[in-house]
Amino acid sequence: ADNDTEFQIKRKHIKGVIADMFAAGTDTSSIAIEWGMSEVLRNPPVLKKLQEELERVVGMERMVQESDLPSLVYLQAVVKETLRLHPPGPLAIPHLSLEDCSVSGYEIPGGTCVLLNLWAIGRNPKSWEDAESFKPERFMEKTGAEEVDVNV
């Protein structure tokens, strides 16, 4: 093999990649939890409603279990509303357009790298009534049912 073209992976490179992967997997989750707690604490009626749901569904004698999640409708709405206002990554993963297309009147040539601004989408007053307010109920009203899809 030609030593000029060979790439030597050093221990520091492996450590760097592992650190990046760890941060990507934990930092986004902790940021979402911090924003969720912040919004709930800033909105006492939301906190009260969330406490009531947790007491009713889970009770005070045990921890929340995964099997409880389908019944924690308001908690799911709080999570969705938190992620709408405070996406852990304000820009979505870059996408590449495979062919020429038009999106909302914008012409996008094939081969273009496209970034979605999730922060702006979540706060767009054309899409969200009272876009800057933290209102978990908006995700419950959309369905007209007691269930909210947890797959965000």
Automatic annotation (TrEMBL):
Which Gene3D superfamilies does UniProt cross-reference here? Answer: Cytochrome P450
Among Pfam families, the record links this protein to: p450 (PF00067)
**Keywords, alphabetical:** Heme, Iron, Metal-binding, Oxidoreductase
Which InterPro entries does this UniProt record tie to the protein? Cyt_P450 (IPR001128), Cyt_P450_E_grp-I (IPR002401), Cyt_P450_sf (IPR036396)
Coiled-coil regions listed:
none
One GO term in the molecular function aspect is: heme binding
Q: Which domain of life is it from?
A: Eukaryota
Q: Family per UniProt? A: Belongs to the cytochrome P450 family.
Descriptive protein name: Uncharacterized protein
